[in-house]
Amino acid sequence: MMTYSAFHILWQGLTGNKGWTPVWREPEPKPAYDIVIVGGGGHGLATAYYLATEFGLTNVAVLEKGWLGSGNVGRNTTIIRSNYLLPGNQPFYELSMTLWEGLEQSFNYNAMVSQRGILNLYHSDAQRDAFARRGNAMRMTGAGGELLDQAALRRMAPYLDFDNARFPIKGALYQPRGGTVRHDAVAWGYARGADRRGVDLLQNCEVTGFDIAGGICTGVQTTRGPIKAKKIAVCAAGSSGRVMSLAGLRLPIESHVLQAFVSEGLKPVIPGVITFGAGHFYISQSDKGGLVFGGDIDGYNSYAQRGGLPVVEDVCEGGMAILPMLGRARLLRMWGGVMDMSMDGSPFIDKTDVDGLYFNGGWCYGGFKATPASGYCTAHLLARDEPHPVAAAYRLDRFRRGAPIDEKGAGAQANLH
Ligand SMILES: Cc1cc2nc3c(=O)[nH]c(=O)nc-3n(C[C@H](O)[C@H](O)[C@H](O)COP(=O)(O)OP(=O)(O)OC[C@H]3O[C@@H](n4cnc5c(N)ncnc54)[C@H](O)[C@@H]3O)c2cc1C
User: Fold this and answer.
1) Tens digits of per-residue pLDDT, 142-171?
2) What does the pLDDT look like over 353-381, one tens digit per residue?
3) Domain span at residue 143?
4) Handedness of CA 398, 401, 406, 407 (dihedral sign)
5) Is residue 67 part of a domain?
6) Where does ligand 1 bind, in terms of residues with CB under 6 Å?
7) Ligand 1 midpoint to CA 73 (Å)
8) N or C: which end of the chain has fewer CB atoms below 10 A?
């Protein structure tokens, strides 16, 4: 497989672009693998990539029911950040940020990692104090963070509606290392990196059942035939509940729709990412100029990849409260993805009670930024059969043990996280 470089682009340009080869193979399924990963989204592909690169395990297949990247990895609003508070989360997301920073060099693919900074706005003294605490937790893990007062924020983002009567903006918690990454390039880069090391990427291969006998899982049934495996990891994001029910397991997860919106292309106006602190709204600007924004999940459970109008109204109201200029932009497109909302808003990377069956999920609407660390830690769990230290809190039994990781302090209700 070819290595991408500036020289290669120049050479192809001069020779009619006839030498590009497919980015990955289209192999036929083998009857058995050491490890099978269910789900060819960001987390499944990253797991396969790190199994091969970090743990030398290449007799691996990724089974994807549609095409690679057809799920949430290609549907999200591309924000990355590591501005977490709790010890169970912050080191994990900081590992992810560190991996993002070296990602393009490591898999030799341009994922457009763009660390333009993230501003979390605060609107009251109490919220400022909570953000100061969060910022201190971030600084302790090396994530960096700065508490901006209103004057400093005005210099950085003068177009915000600071004097909004209902939600005046008093300042922001700023993480300069936050930003955006081109989401589908992440799927393609990990896929290419895994494929070139021998991993089989099997598209149009839906898992329809698990072979479980005596509490041990030894393979899967798929639309392309049965496949045996010593270990099986489910990384099916919004479909987690449906897929794990095929193995007879119930999860502390609900599926909800999350919508995304993109405006027409505009001249550069928003340099980084901005989030509203008094409602659910976040916005950035893509390299093509579109304002990319979103807000809350639709409140009802659903597996549909489209949402309802009340949330459209809510998101637009949130945007108008901090950025009145948004009302002048025309909406170009919108879509939905299915979120695997856990009851405390934090994810799972764990073995299940069935021997040989592993689970990665519960990423809620923040799993894109977690992709590198999630893949790395899931690969670690599969290879070593013990959790990676930064993912040690992501156990499936944490609710039974009374050890939820309630980052938002919203309690055990998925649609409040
Ligand atoms: C609108 C929107 C905005 C978001 N914004 C952000 C953001 O800004 N920042 C952030 O960090 N996160 C964001 N997220 C969340 C993030 O996208 C997800 O948490 C993350 O992508 C989930 O992991 P994944 O990439 O592996 O999922 P997916 O890409 O959904 O991968 C799961 C795969 O499993 C496959 N699958 C399902 N069932 C089967 C089966 N039976 N057999 C085989 N394959 C199967 C699916 O087809 C799918 O391809 C957003 C999500 C949405 C929808």
Assistant:
1) 999 999 999 999 999 999 999 999 999 999
2) 999 999 999 999 999 999 999 999 999 99
3) 113-179+254-342
4) negative
5) yes
6) 38-44, 63-66, 70-73, 75-79, 206-207, 235-239, 243, 258-260, 294, 337, 363, 365-369
7) 5
8) N
